[in-house]
Amino acid sequence: MKRKKTVALIAAALTFTMTACGSSTAITESASTEESTPSAAAESVLEEESTPSAITESALTAESKPATQYTIDANQEVYALLDFEDTAEFENATKGLIASPDTLDIYDENGKLVWSQTAYGFLDQDAPDTANPSLWRNTQLNHIYGLFEVTDGIYQVRGYDMSNVTFIKGDTGWIVIDPLMSVECAAAAFSLVEENLGTFPVKAVIYSHSHVDHFGGVKGIISEEDVQSGDVQVIAPEGFEKYAVSENIYAGTAMGRRASYQYGTMLEASETGALAIGIGMGQSRGSTSYISPTLEITETGEKHTIDGVEIEFQLTPGTEAPAEMNFWIESKNALWMAENCTGTLHNLYTLRGAQVRDGNAWAEYIMESLALYGDQADVVFQSHNWPHWGKDIIQEYMTNTAAVYKFINDQTLLYINEGYTETEIANMIQLPKELEKVWYTRQYYGTVSHNSKAVYEKYMGWYDGNPIHLAELTPSDYAQKLVEYFGDTDVVLEKAKEDFARGEYQWVAQITNTLVYADPENTDARYLCADALEQLGYQAESGPWRSAYLCAAQELRNGTNTDDATRGNGNGDVILHMTPEMILDYLGILVDTTKVPDLSFTANLILPEGNYVLRVKNGVLLYQKDIQDADADVTWTTKRAGLLSIVQKNAENVAALIEQEGDETCLTRLMDAVTVTSEYKFFNIFEPLYFFVEYHVFVYNYTNRVGCGFTGHLDGTSHYRE
User: Fold this and answer.
1) How far apart are CA 720 and CA 696, in angstroms?
2) Whose CA is closest to 327, among 377, 364, 293?
3) Under 8 Å CB-to-CB from 489, ≥6 apart: which residues?
4) Is 226:233 a contact under the CB 8 Å cutoff?
5) What is the mean pLDDT of each run of 10 residues along the chain (722 residues)?
6) How many domains does the chain have?
7) pLDDT at 61
8) Would you report the helix, strand and coil content of the chain in percent, each value rounded to 5?
């Protein structure tokens, strides 16, 4: 099968564009413009037309594998579907380039690498067999980094983190929009701005929405003191702090673990590893921070003049984030679309886990933006990817973007009412052909499949109406019963090998994962499952899907990666900004009723922010504000720091910060019941949770005999040692 020559043409166009802008990071035309011929191996397969043979025992290893012929063929088909000669998005991504360093590696104060564009130097070629050509193209686009002029007085630093940071020049200083995820990345971006545009004070920071990649780097730009002194405003949409805190804390441990799969933070950037994730190159691994807003926007049409720049805001709650806003700068004819428009299909449900988003509302708010500002806008820009210029292009860009979310919402509901289930719909629904071919609505981040499941969940919940699913067995119990019915798992494994040889990778992954859940020590099943997932990753157009497949393959082969260097550094700043109600809600989440099953008491809580009554009944924590109970078992007088010490299970601080009157065993028993969920931050995803410790003890016993060792912990963390 012949490879299209269009990728080489794109590379040539990109080289010209970036050279014209003075960039030293151009993607060069390294590939021949001649159409390549199939490899000898591929020709052999085509000529023989024989039935594929089953994978051999020797092939089941912990090593990464090359693309199979089925994967090669699947990826080649992408060239026939899409117009790779269309370079408009490359032109948009490079337009206005002011400066770009030759290499980009950002480190924290301890020397940890938190962000790298240098690692993606291998992109200067056609897509390899191990990558979907469409995702490869998106990765090339997101690899274009530096300081760009959006329009007169508006600048962006792109490619310095997963998101963009925007700088608007006011009368005396900067208005900064969405200061990235990591402090280190934000500081590096600000330095690039100052090197090229001069040094001016920051007068305001605007958070467009409540996701951490849009506020976590704020202390790389400003300090708490700047805000407390009144020198800097921090502006956010209504409800921002509530959602920013709750999303990152309440289920933060689980989201963090799942995010490592979604963003591929455990993967090395390579032709067989991490590529872009649609909205950027991936997640930075630096320090996150937080500063509370000083001004909340409460209605659409609200206007504020900030350092001489008038900005009109449009609230868009329940779209890409529960609290989000667009804004219009009339003096610049510039429309900011937050994350409601991007260079990819986005998520109605994000694989890391979060509240399901409203596709219908998302589309409606985009169309509202068009109605309010579309006729005047010369440029649309946003917090990911690159701007779009020109009234006709903007109309088409925003309309197409609204259309994909509306289509997924409406078509899913149609199929629901026809009686189809969530999984059936996900396998049925497909974008209309014209929308399918639009580069900025391709499935690089969200997918039609998992977004349709989000719509199903939003309207119908988890239950599909089949009573078989009301009280299903656990995955482990189900797997063990199924294996019992199989009788001989070796026979099942042999059939799975045959199906792998036929390219049936999804089925092979499913059935071998069942074998792994029944017996995690079944090495052949683990390796075959990993091999199947790897091929699915190579074929995936969605960056998060590729990352998830490859992370799972890696863990099946090598065990769970517990290296903290693969993750960002905590949410301590966010925790400190929790209200007493948020802390009490979080405390209720952390109480494990199995530890102290009869935990019951009433406590009066006296805080500077007000008085509360805590009513703990059989481990369930309820509270009431602005009252006290005369018959309470105990009274606690403290500050928020004391409450946080309970949450963090810091006995020393609890003793120092909480004054008690009454039954002091109440607090002791409560502390005994509290679980520190961060201890479980590396929980299993692709094998039974209970087997985590057993499995690694097995490895310890085995490897110890050959001179290696292993340290395992009952809290679910572990590490190898040589």
Assistant:
1) 10
2) 377
3) 483, 515, 518, 519, 522, 525
4) no
5) 36 37 34 36 39 62 96 98 97 98 96 97 97 98 98 98 98 98 98 98 98 96 97 97 87 88 94 98 95 97 98 97 98 98 96 93 98 98 98 98 98 97 97 96 98 97 94 93 92 96 98 95 96 98 97 94 75 82 94 91 97 95 96 97 94 96 96 88 77 36 32 33 28
6) 3
7) 95
8) 45, 15, 40
Phi-psi region of 286 (alpha: psi -120 to 50; beta: other; left: phi over 0): beta
- Beta strands in 508-625, from DSSP E residues, in sequence order: 601-607, 610-617, 620-625
CA-closest candidate to residue 445, choices 263, 606, 602, 592:
263
Asked if the structure places residue 547 within a domain, the reply is: no
- Does 646 lie in the same domain as 588? yes
Best CA proximity match to 212, nearest among 190, 183, 189: 183
CA distances from 661 to 87, 603, 614 (A): 72, 10, 15
CATH number for 661: 3.30.1050.10
Distance (Å) of CA 371 to CA 97, 304, 395, 598? 30, 21, 10, 59
What is the residue whose two structure tokens read 């102290």? 596
Domain stops at, among 332, 364, 392:
392
Q: β-strands 295-297, 303-306: how paired?
A: unpaired
DSSP character string of 5-54: SHHHHHHHHHHHHHHHTT-S------S-SSPPPPPHHHHHHHHH-PPPPP
For residues 315 and 238, give the distance between their C-alpha atoms in angstroms, rounded to a whole number. Answer: 8
pTM recorded for the entire structure: 0.88
The closest alpha carbon to 609, from 643, 654, 639, 586, belongs to 639
Whether 586 and 708 share a structural domain: no
Closest of 177, 180, 78 to residue 136, by C-alpha: 78
Shared domain for 655 and 709, answered yes or no, is no
Residues 587 and 705 in one domain: no
Question: Does residue 515 sit within a domain?
Answer: no
- 609 and 703 fall within a common domain: no
Q: Exposure of 598 by Cβ count < 10 A (0-12 exposed, 13-18 middle, 19+ buried)?
A: exposed
Q: Are 585 and 672 in contact (CB under 8 A)?
A: no
Measured at the alpha carbon of residue 649, what is the angle toward residues 112 and 285, in degrees to the nearest 5?
20
Contact call for residues 566 and 285 (beta carbons, < 8 A): yes
Q: Give the dihedral sign, CA 615/621/622/624.
A: positive
Q: Which tokens sit at 428? A: 């049925």
Q: 3-class DSSP state for residue 84?
A: coil
What is the Cα–Cα distance from 345 to 400, expressed in whole angstroms? 10
What are the tokens at 487? 């009788």
Largest CA distance in the chain: 88
Residues 373 and 235 in one domain: yes
**636: domain range?**
572-678
| 586 and 651 share one domain | yes
Within-domain flag for 70? no
CATH number at residue 250: 3.60.15.30
- Residue ending a domain, among 331, 364, 392, is 392
For 364, phi then psi, to 5°, come to -65, -40
* Rounded Cα gap, residues 607 and 636, in angstroms: 9
356 lies in a domain? yes
| Strand duo 659-662 + 113-116: pairing | unpaired
For the record, the structure tokens of 96 come out as 């206005």
If asked whether residues 379 and 323 sit together in one domain, one would say yes
